[in-house]
């Protein structure tokens, strides 16, 4: 939030800028149209709220615990670059919303509550 009380948005045009925003825990990140296709092809997006709720109900609330353990094991043996692993790990804290046909908005999941 800036001094006037307005929300500030960080615009990511490449993976380095996205990783910078994720490391700084920017509350709102816009994925620009230039980076959108690369982002969708290379990033592992987390489950939506509805998908996660159904999974948690089916596993009696333990899906997140087991999912995190398996995710860390798979990530440990993955041959992806360190940058991609960091982005995929940190982006799990964000929800994604399509703003328009050209870009996406990532926002911290804690704002949903």
List its salient traits.
alpha+beta, four-stranded mixed sheet, 15% strand, 47% helix, 4 strands, 113 residues
Could you explain how this protein is built, in words?
- By secondary structure, the chain is an alpha+beta fold.
- The chain has helices at 15-23, 33-42, 49-58, 63-77, 82-90; strands at 10-12, 28-31, 94-98, 104-108.
- Strand 3 and strand 4 form a beta hairpin.
- It is globular.
Helix/strand layout:
Blueprint: E1 10-12, H1 15-23, E2 28-31, H2 33-42, H3 49-58, H4 63-77, H5 82-90, E3 94-98, E4 104-108
Parallel strand pairs: 1-2
Antiparallel strand pairs: 2-4, 3-4
Tell me, briefly, the overall form.
globular
Head-to-tail CA distance between termini:
18 Å
Helix content: 40-55%
Sheet of most strands = 4 strands, mixed
In total, the number of strands is 4
Order of helices and strands: EHEHHHHEE
Report the C-alpha radius of gyration, rounded. 15 Å
Round the mean pLDDT to the nearest integer and report it.
Answer: 79
Side by side, the strands of the main sheet go 1-2-4-3
Taking pLDDT < 50 over at least 5 consecutive residues as the criterion, the unreliable ranges are none
Count of DSSP H/I helices: 5
> Strand pairing plus helix content: what structural class?
alpha+beta
What is this structure, in a nutshell?
By secondary structure, the chain is α+β, with helices and mostly antiparallel strands. Helices cover 47% and strands 15% of the residues.
